[in-house]
Amino acid sequence: MSTLTAVTDATFRDEVLTSEIPVVVDIWATWCGPCRQVAPLLEQLAVEYDGRAKIVKVDADQNPETVSAAGVTSIPTLGFYRDGTRTDILIGAHPKPVIAEKIEALIS
Predict the structure, then answer these.
(1) How many CB atoms lie within 10 A of CB 44?
(2) Which SUPFAM superfamilies would you find in this protein's record (predicted)?
């Protein structure tokens, strides 16, 4: 069972931009191999950072408004949001320690 919240164009504002805790947004697609590599790492990190940050998933194929607004041209893209503003970004598949480092910076 996924611990990650699926976010859509319709729910992005409520789930991400007005969130009271920092948010990591995973923009992915079902056909994307690197996205499938990152998915289990994000599941683990969602558990590890529960209550301090949340990790959400946006299906790029189903949510073109969010993808366009975020300026995403390659997936997977991880956007790091605090107080409604994207503060950092990771493009492509990265190992868990790299993603965790970005989350640590986001919540500090």
Answers:
(1) 15
(2) Thioredoxin-like (SSF52833)
Q: Give pLDDT tens digits for 15-65.
A: 999 999 999 999 999 999 999 999 999 999 999 999 999 999 999 999 999
Q: Is 32 a catalytic site residue?
A: yes
9, with CB counted inside 10 A (0-12, 13-18, 19+), is: middle
Annotated active-site residue 35? The verdict is yes
Of the CA atoms within 13 Å of residue 68, those in its CB half-sphere come to: 6
DSSP result, 47-72:
HHTTTT-EEEEEETTT-HHHHHHTT-
Q: Which of 7, 16, 24, 35 is catalytic?
A: 35
Q: Which CATH number applies to 5-107?
A: 3.40.30.10
| pLDDT (tens digit per residue) in 71-86 | 999 999 999 999 999 9
